Amino acid sequence: LCADGSEKTISVSNISSQVPIPGWYLWETSIDITEMKRAKERLLESNERISLAVECAGMGTWDLDLASGNAIWSENHFRILGYEPRPDGRTDFETFLSRVHPDDLELVLAEFEHARTTSSLYAVEHRILRADTGEVRWLMSFGRFLSDPSGRTYRVLGVIFDSNEKKLL
């Protein structure tokens, strides 16, 4: 608590000699991290609002590492594709591709590659075969490629949602 009544968050570090003998020393540094803590809290609140909006909209999220092919899916993503959600969300790109309807696989891969090479939004409507029932459903898939400072794409973040009802109207 400061003299003016405001609160600050302070990070304190210290280094001391190993043995308290004559010449023993203690160095201590203090850094005001109040703004960093507030920014982190605002970011967490924003993420919670976005997560709620995505969940309420019935969308599933995905995060794909392009180098490894490893992916993280939200619980709803697993459910949309007909899988039991995994606690850690871990899966891979091949699992997603295995659910894409064979007649739409070429389109999905072409749109994915086009978006990657042009740094544009990945957006495609396609069919899937649900893993649990084999039912054919229409999906909308969207993704944004992330690039490092050299321009190499390394990751894709995206959402999917079941557009079957809309498609059948």
Compose a concise summary of this entry.
The protein is α+β, with helices and mostly antiparallel strands and about 170 residues long.
Plain-language structure description:
- The strands form 2 sheets. This protein has a 6-stranded antiparallel β-sheet. A two-stranded antiparallel ribbon has the order 1-2.
- It has 5 helices and 8 strands.
- By secondary structure, the chain is α+β, with helices and mostly antiparallel strands.
- A hairpin with a 4-residue loop joins strand 3 and strand 4 (70-73).
- The protein is elongated.
- The termini are far apart.
- The protein has helices at residues 34-56, 75-80, 93-99, 105-118, 164-168, and strands at 10-16, 26-32, 60-65, 70-73, 90-92, 122-129, 136-147, 153-162.
Q: Low-confidence spans: pLDDT under 50, at least 5 residues?
A: none
Q: Could you report the average pLDDT, rounded to the nearest whole number?
A: 88
Backbone CA Rg:
24 Å
Alpha-beta content class: alpha+beta
Give the count of helical stretches: 5
- Subunit organisation of the chains: single chain
Strand content: 25-35%
